[in-house]
């Protein structure tokens, strides 16, 4: 990751809406060119605040935001000319048609009128372009918001929870669209989400934010490797006290009930060793399974660490 | 830069399309002439005598007095709120500020729309006044409106003076509408400031209070007090320049975009 050129870089980014009430704390975001960067965090973690700072929607004296190598907000217009965005729920003029909405923003982005039809086609809205957007479903509104973000054919897309509120079909559509924009049109995408499984399916890189701090940043492969180092075995035994005596010298052991213990381990081979040690020590093992095999479990472990 | 500003101002007009702005403009312009037609037709016993000398000028002033003092300030308060609320209601400010437009472009392109709608309102109102005059005459020829020539210069003079007087208020109301997401706040503040002006009408420092300028532009007899026209014109222009400067500075340097 360190070798790849970064499109977005923040250097010790802090932010507080009020003095003393720090929302972001020392965020060093690094979004590599050509990546789909999943910006993960629970609600209220600071994702939207970070994205709003990146887009210049929050005024910050912090000089540590660089996009395309240019400082934000100093080079705000140059940066925004190369950046498409979708922040929180879709921003649409509901009394206007889909095409009129695009026409409004087309003028701001200085694109030719032909581009409106192109983005309608890309987002699959050509047939609904003449309808007022208040008649659109949430999925269609979300797609139109993406169409607006794509109007000026930006190199970077910043999307805040683009699948929020969508049904499973809508989530798949948006995911496929983002994937296509990244793979076939070479766009770098920064997408925030609290839907962990969604990010796992979409992202090449992941940043995990919690309570204003960036707790993890790396590729998806690095996250999975991190996951193995921090997974647990759940073991059903006939004697939890004896189990703790046998394992506690080598592994972290947490008693979770009369017959259940959680044992930390760093690689799959250690599961066999743990089982061998217990059986050898006279403990009856009735069940042994690996916990924390999904990103969701790891995410919860990271943010509750 | 000029081309881009023009393009974005056109976009602002597209946003106002199918909103209530145009209806509000027409209905507000129609309001007083319609009421005055009824009044003139109902009470010729009292009013005919007033229309004997200069029927058209009297008719213009009969309509304009309520507009300059009440309807125009109300219209400005409502229309600025309505135009700015298009962004708040649709949650589009963030998309506007995340587009590659300078703050000046964003601020002034919307202000241009408001500054176009106010003259459109005045033009519509003047047009409806003319039609109302013709209607009154056709239903009661005793008013003799058709018998005399239309006093175009007086109508133009009243319209221009009152428009100049209301310019600063339109900018102040625009600023308030941008400042507050909740539309009730700029609406309440606007009404409060206007009522305060009415209450303080006799105050010797009232010339520093922009909310009364449009009323003064109509009610002061400048033939008798020509120096007041100079004072009011300078005050109106100064208030306009100051309100634009303060509003733009405040909006540009706000810590958070809506």
TL;DR of this structure?
By secondary structure, chain A is of the alpha/beta class. Chain A has helices at residues 47-54, 76-81, 98-109, 114-122, 138-150, 168-183, 196-202, 220-229, 240-247, 269-280, 295-303; strands spanning 6-10, 13-18, 21-27, 30-32, 36-40, 65-67, 70-72, 83-86, 156-160, 188-193, 205-210, 213-219, 231-237, 253-255, 260-265, 285-290. Chain A contains eleven helices and 16 strands.
- Biggest sheet character of chain A: 6 strands, mixed
Largest chain-chain contact? A-B, 34 and 29 residues
How much of the polypeptide of chain B forms β-strand, as a percent range?
under 5%
Q: Please state the structural category of chain A.
A: alpha/beta
Oligomer: heterodimer
The amount of helix of chain A comes to 25-40%
Strand segment tally of chain B: 0
Cα-atom radius of gyration of chain B: 20 Å
Which regions of chain A have little confidence, pLDDT < 50, spanning 5+ residues? none
Tally of strands of chain A: 16
Point out poorly predicted stretches of chain B.
Answer: none
What is the helix content of chain B? over 70%
Count of alpha/pi helices of chain B? 10
Which series of helices and strands of chain B comes N to C?
HHHHHHHHHH
Strand order across the biggest sheet of chain A? 8-9-10-5-11-12
Give the biggest sheet of chain B: none
- Overall pLDDT level of chain A: 87
Helix count of chain A equals 11
Helix and strand composition category of chain B: mainly alpha
Query: Which word captures the global form of chain A?
Result: elongated
List the helices and strands and how they pair.
The complex is a heterodimer of chains A (305) and B (258).
Chain A: E1 6-10, E2 13-18, E3 21-27, E4 30-32, E5 36-40, H1 47-54, E6 65-67, E7 70-72, H2 76-81, E8 83-86, H3 98-109, H4 114-122, H5 138-150, E9 156-160, H6 168-183, E10 188-193, H7 196-202, E11 205-210, E12 213-219, H8 220-229, E13 231-237, H9 240-247, E14 253-255, E15 260-265, H10 269-280, E16 285-290, H11 295-303
Parallel strand pairs in A: 5-10, 5-11, 8-9, 9-10
Antiparallel strand pairs in A: 1-4, 1-6, 2-3, 6-7, 11-12, 13-15, 13-16, 14-15
Chain B: H1 2-16, H2 21-42, H3 44-47, H4 55-90, H5 93-97, H6 103-139, H7 152-179, H8 184-199, H9 213-219, H10 226-252
């Amino acid at each position: 990751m360190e070798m790849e050129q970064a499109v977005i870089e923040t250097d010790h980014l802090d932010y507080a809406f009020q003095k003393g009430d720090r929302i972001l704390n020392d965020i060093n975001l690094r979004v590599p060119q050509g990546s789909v960067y999943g910006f993960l965090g629970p609600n209220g973690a600071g994702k939207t605040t970070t994205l709003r700072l990146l887009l210049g929607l929050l005024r910050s004296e912090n000089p540590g935001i660089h996009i395309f190598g240019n400082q934000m907000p100093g080079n705000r217009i140059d940066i925004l000319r190369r950046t498409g965005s979708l922040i929180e729920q879709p921003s649409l003029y509901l009394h206007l048609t889909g095409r009129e909405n695009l026409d409004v923003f087309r003028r701001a982005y200085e694109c030719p009128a032909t581009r409106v039809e192109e983005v309608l086609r890309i987002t699959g809205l050509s047939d609904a372009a003449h309808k007022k957007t208040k008649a659109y479903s949430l999925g269609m509104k979300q797609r139109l918001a993406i169409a607006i973000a794509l109007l000026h054919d930006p190199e970077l897309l910043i999307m805040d929870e683009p699948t929020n509120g969508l049904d499973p079909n809508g989530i798949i559509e948006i995911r496929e669209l983002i994937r296509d924009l990244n793979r076939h049109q070479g766009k770098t995408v920064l997408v925030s989400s609290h839907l962990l499984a969604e990010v796992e399916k979409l992202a090449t890189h992941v940043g995990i934010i919690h309570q204003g701090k960036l707790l993890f940043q790396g590729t998806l492969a690095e996250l999975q490797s991190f996951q193995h180092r921090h997974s647990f075995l759940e073991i059903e035994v006939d004697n939890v006290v004896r189990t703790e005596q046998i394992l506690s010298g080598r592994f972290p052991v947490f008693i979770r009930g009369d017959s259940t213990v959680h044992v930390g381990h760093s690689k799959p081979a250690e599961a066999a060793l743990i089982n061998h040690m217990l059986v050898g020590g006279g403990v009856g093992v009735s069940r042994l399974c690996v916990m924390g095999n999904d990103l969701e479990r790891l995410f919860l472990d990271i943010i509750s660490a | 830069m000029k081309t881009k500003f023009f393009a974005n101002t056109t976009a602002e007009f597209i946003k106002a399309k199918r909103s209530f702005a145009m209806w509000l403009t027409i209905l507000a312009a129609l309001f007083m002439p319609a009421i005055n037609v009824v009044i003139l037709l109902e009470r010729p016993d009292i009013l005919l005598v007033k229309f004997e000398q200069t029927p058209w000028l009297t008719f213009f002033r009969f309509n304009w007095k309520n507009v300059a003092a009440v309807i125009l300030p109300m219209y400005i308060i409502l229309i600025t709120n309505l135009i700015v609320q298009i962004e708040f209601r649709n949650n589009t400010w963030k998309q506007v500020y995340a587009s590659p437009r300078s703050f000046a472009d964003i601020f002034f392109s919307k202000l241009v729309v408001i500054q176009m709608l106010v003259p459109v309102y005045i033009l519509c109102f003047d047009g409806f006044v003319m039609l109302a005059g013709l209607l009154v005459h056709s239903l009661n020829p005793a008013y003799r409106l058709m018998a005399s020539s239309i006093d175009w210069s007086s109508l133009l003079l009243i319209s221009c003076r009152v428009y100049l007087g209301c310019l600063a208020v339109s900018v102040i109301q625009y600023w308030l509408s941008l400042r507050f997401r909740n539309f009730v706040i700029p609406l309440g503040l606007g009404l409060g400031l206007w009522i305060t002006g009415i209450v303080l009408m006799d105050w010797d420092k009232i010339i520093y209070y922009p909310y009364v300028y449009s009323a003064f532009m109509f009610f002061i007899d400048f033939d008798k007090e020509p120096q007041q026209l100079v004072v009011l014109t300078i005050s109106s222009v100064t208030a306009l320049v100051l309100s634009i400067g303060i509003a733009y500075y405040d909006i540009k340097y706000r810590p958070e975009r809506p």
